[in-house]
Amino acid sequence: MTATQGTASRTHQSETAAEVVGRLRATFSTGVTRSLDWRVSQLQRLRALLVENEQELIEALWADLRKNAAEAKMQEIDFTVADIDETLANLENWLQPRPVEVPAHFGPTTTAYTTYDPLGVVLVIAPWNFPLHLLIDPIIGALAAGNTVVAKPSEISVHTSAVASRLLREYFDPDVLTVVEGGAEETTALLAQRFDHIFYTGNGAVGRVVMAAAAKNLTPVTLELGGKSPVFVAPDADVDETAKRLVGAKFGNAGQQCIAPDYVLADPATVAALVPALRAAVEAQFGTSPQTSADFGRIINERHFDRLTRLLDSGRAAVGGQHDRDDLFIAPTVLTDVDPASPIMQEEIFGPIIAVVEVEDLDAAIAFINERDKPLALYAFTESEAVKARLVNETSSGGVAWGQPVMQLLMTGLPFGGVGESGMGRYHGRYSLETFSHLKGVADVPLS
Ligand code: NAD
Question: Residue 147: what are its φ and ψ, rounded to 5°?
């Protein structure tokens, strides 16, 4: 055990959900979580957990998703550590009360300010696709804001969730942070409790279950959901560079990313140039046999494999299309001749298949996007500021990125979250503090 680890590594699986929440609420009620020192020391623990156990965590991510070490380190560990470091560097400043202008008729001695109040006990429910990052990242905000936490990892990413659960128990006082493992049944028991905030990442069907349960207690929720994130490739885009960046962004984690490019919209001439460029880019990145590439991941389980291979029937595999169920492998695939009414355009792909849909022009692309659910991310490849301005002003999405999909996630100064079907609320950096706090207004009118 290192100096940064907690004293007791108890397991709480024998406790009821009510007992867990009651215990964490008792801690919160003492007021201990409010001080800056307490918050900083919790964040330092979280940082130590990640840094001191990097290798074991990377191995678990490989076992679950065949995530290569470099990708696992960057996306699941380094990014999370960077978010902690940014929070540690700024927390004192972020927590300062902010004076507010008071209407003149209150007189010169009246003052007002805003201050961040911790909420209490928060529940973090994580998914399997970035099983470490999406478990730890919300916890950063929850602890920075002075709350106690129940963490519920995904039961599907068995290896990473087991290691992360064990480490969280080792590093944290169980009266500050408790891990509850399990699936729908255990989560349902948790959701029957009163929390002060619920932060859920996953699919929209369960998002609705979470929100309905939260409504019973008027508990605020953050729902980090998914959706079909479109990519508009304008005729002026350099197709080779576009293809290279699209392939890099789309096929990381075998496409199992909430903000992965889902489908491409482009005019027929651009599609004709882009498809061979995508083929070349896939080959440059993963070789002629991606199944043997150490850089290409696997599908999480048979259920998702079967779902994805059914979607291959929605078009023509101009690139890839090969699959091997025993190995949970689906090749990086570009599907052309996709009818907008086909199954692949009705659900989030969430795998290594990108659909290409031909549209006449930018107007048609904007109309296509607006006829569908609001996506988590919108991407475009263009040099034209006018095209970017039209896309950002005439469509709605959780966020946008021009020229480089997915990497916006690493910019912790940007809020990250969805809108409409892609979710509600936002986090990262300062936005995490806001999510897990109540911004309280304080008015002070002198008695004399
Ligand atoms: P998942 O199956 O791991 O489920 C997520 C969590 O919900 C798990 O902890 C699980 O135990 C719990 N859960 C499942 N069924 C439940 C039920 N009936 N009641 C209560 N809890 C239940 O992950 P998933 O949903 O397959 O994740 C993939 C989805 O998540 C995709 O749609 C993806 O786009 C989205 N996602 C969004 C983000 C984001 O940041 N916006 C990030 C990653 C994934």
Answer: -110, 165
352-364, pLDDT tens digit by residue?
999 999 999 999 9
Convert the pLDDT of each residue in 139-163 to its tens digit. Answer: 999 999 999 999 999 999 999 999 9
Concatenated DSSP letters of 241-253: HHHHHHHHHHSGG
Give 222's contacts (C-beta < 8 A, 6+ positions apart): 138, 197, 198, 199, 200, 417, 423, 424, 425, 426, 427, 435
Active site residue 224: yes
- 184: CB partners within 8 A, 6+ apart: none
- Ligand 1 centre to CA of 367 (Å) is 29
Closest residue to atom 11 of ligand 1, CA basis:
183
Q: Is residue 338 a contact partner of residue 297, using CB atoms and an 8 Å limit? A: no
User: 180 by DSSP, 3-state: which?
Assistant: coil
CA–CA–CA angle 10, 16, 21 (5° rounding): 80
d(CA 228, CA 260): 8
Residue 384 contacts residue 392 (beta carbons within 8 Å): no
pLDDT of residue 13: 61
Is this structure's pTM higher than 0.80? yes
- 3 state SS of 265: strand
- Identify the residues whose C-beta falls under 6 Å from ligand 1: 125-129, 134, 152, 154-156, 183-184, 187-188, 201-203, 206, 209, 224-226, 258, 348, 350, 376, 418, 423
Determine which residue's CA is closest to atom 16 belonging to ligand 1.
184
How far apart CA 284 and CA 275 sit, in angstroms, is 14
Q: Which residues contact 369 (CB under 8 A, 6 or more apart)?
A: 230, 265, 375, 378, 395, 397
- Using an 8 Å Cβ cutoff, are 186 and 152 in contact? yes
Which of 243, 245, 405 has the alpha carbon at shortest distance from 318? Answer: 243
Predicted complex ipTM? 0.97
CA dihedral 214, 219, 222, 223 (to 10 degrees): 10
User: Which of 201, 208, 350, 426 is the best mutation target for the ligand 1 pocket, counting ligand atoms within 8 Å of the beta carbon and taking the most?
Assistant: 201
Structure tokens at 370: 């607006």
Return the bridge partners of 149, or none. Answer: 122, 177
Measured in Å, residue 123 CA sits from the centre of ligand 1 at 14
